TrEMBL record:
The organism of origin for this protein: Hungatella effluvii
Alphabetical keyword list: DNA-binding, Transcription, Transcription regulation
Limits of the HTH araC/xylS-type domain: 183-281
Record flagged with keyword Manganese: no
The keyword GTP-binding is annotated on this UniProt entry: no
Annotated protein name in UniProt: AraC-like DNA-binding protein
GO molecular function list: DNA-binding transcription factor activity; sequence-specific DNA binding
Domain of life: Bacteria
Cited InterPro entries: AraC-bd, Homeodomain-like_sf, HTH_AraC, RmlC-like_jellyroll, RmlC_Cupin_sf, Tscrpt_reg_AraC-type_HTH
Length: 288
């Protein structure tokens, strides 16, 4: 792929291929057959699994992947550079960074999850027509075809982010708390997340020991009560940073954090960007 192309769309019959990487993003949609697909991301995590018709995925910069045991395996490959989405993204070298900048309003609900290097299935059949539309525009190259590609790719990304959010909600339903104690704790934290020492306050008012609540919360939700509280506070702070003129210190205090340094560290660990970077990218996203 030449740098000046920005996008190449290729339908073909795929044979076995060894691990390889690219200096661009690769959106692949499986149209027939099956294969064993292995992905190794930049952090060294390796995942393997069968891919078949209706599956699709995006391979990130710096990630390696391979196909083995290909059986009548056909796919459509869309290879594209980040500036294909927007010229300001020319220096992006991860798909997470692209999402942060171009789709920040949706990205915050995924909390650091990225649609890159994950296999999705097109259950509703909405992705394939978009892929075929991209392919047709690429082949015909009519006036404005790059804009059509940008719009259809953005739609694919939003539909995929919905899948991530839906899967997350499904996971939440599967780990619904069973005990009255944990239900009461969740309701209390949802309502009083701004308060200092809110967990101690809850235990005192409802006559539970902190040790008991912590143990029950983890057993029933697979996270600690503190992790749940931090999740709520970060979500609320994202809303303030994107939708108000409050400075970072004021936004942090508004959601219950007096220690701004700790808040900034937690925010970056959760969203992979600082509060200032989040506000900047959120403001840029509003211009799209």
């Amino acid at each position: 792929m030449e740098r000046e192309d920005k996008i190449v769309v290729m339908p073909f019959c795929q044979q076995d291929v060894e691990m390889h990487d690219h200096d661009f993003f690769e959106l692949a949609y499986i149209t027939g057959g099956s294969a064993l697909h292995t992905i190794s991301d930049a952090d060294g995590e390796v995942r393997s699994g069968e891919v078949k018709a209706g599956d699709y995925f995006i391979i990130d910069y710096g990630s390696r992947h391979s196909y083995r045991e290909c059986r009548d395996f056909t796919l459509i490959n869309c290879l594209f550079l980040p500036e294909m989405i927007d010229d300001t993204l020319a220096d992006c070298r991860s798909f997470e960074e692209v999402l942060r900048v171009s789709l920040i309003r949706y990205y915050k609900w995924c909390f650091g999850q990225t649609s890159a290097n994950r296999v999705f299935h097109d259950e509703e059949g909405r992705i394939l027509p978009l892929i075929l539309g991209i392919q047709e525009e690429y082949q015909e190259k009519k006036v404005g075809y790059t804009e059509v590609f940008r719009c259809r790719l953005t739609e694919i990304l939003i539909l995929t982010i919905r899948k991530i959010i839906c899967d997350s909600k499904k996971d939440d339903r599967e780990i619904q708390p069973r005990s009255t104690a944990v239900l009461e704790a969740i309701r209390y934290l949802d309502k009083n997340y701004r308060e200092r020492a809110v967990l101690k306050q809850f235990c005192r008012e409802y006559h539970y020991s902190q040790q008991y609540i912590s143990r029950k919360f983890r057993q029933e939700t697979e996270m600690t009560a503190l992790e749940y509280l931090q999740k709520i506070r970060i979500e609320k702070c994202c809303e303030l940073l994107a939708g108000s003129d409050l400075c970072i210190q004021e936004a942090a205090r508004s959601v219950g954090y007096e220690d701004v340094k700790f808040f900034c560290t937690l925010f970056k660990r959760t969203l992979n960007m600082t509060p200032g970077e989040y506000r900047k990218t959120a403001a840029a996203a509003m211009q799209y």
